[in-house]
Amino acid sequence: MSQTPHPPTKVGATPAVTRYFDSRAAGYCAAMTHGPWSWLRHRESSAVLALAGPVSHRAVLDLGCGAGAYATLFADNGAAPVVGVDASRQMIAAIADHRIATIVGDVATVSLDRRFDLVVLAGVLEFVADAGAVLANAARHLTTDGRIVALVPPDTLGGWTYRLFHRSHGIAITLFSEDQIALLADGAGLRPTARRLVRPYAAVYALEPR
Predict the structure, then answer these.
(1) In 3-state terms, what secondary structure has residue 155?
(2) CA angle 129-134-137, nearest 5°?
(3) Which DSSP category does 102 fall into?
């Protein structure tokens, strides 16, 4: 099921970011799971799944779902329903898994009519204009005993290398220190409860309502 409730706005993904991911949509998941970066993506997804906790029969919202790699991962582990939101129409179009309901929308402003046990922000906060707004929107869609799992590039040498990679495509990304994540979480009414580094390019945080 695919919906388009609102056109994307500049609060979340910028036009340059959306164009970049539109251009990479075809074969994106295959490249991530079978290409030269698959070893790193496997470690990242293992950390995300571990910090998510039990997901069987739990409702999952994947904000910034891309071509659906994480949404599929959670569906494979028994999550239901699974909803994916992304500003890239081409990425959404690449999701053919009937278990995933898809919505083209801005991750900072999209408003759904339900709350979720788990909200996933995997590789999205670094690309948006206002990470605090995205995190606050994620918190608005969370059940009172739910959890957000965010995968972000850390403010480390590895993160700087990752930032240079995207700069070569004309995209400026944000890196996040542990203190910055704590500050963003506090502004959204959340608190960090766990953290895992996935060297060299990622850190995964579990965030829960205060």
Answers:
(1) coil
(2) 150
(3) E
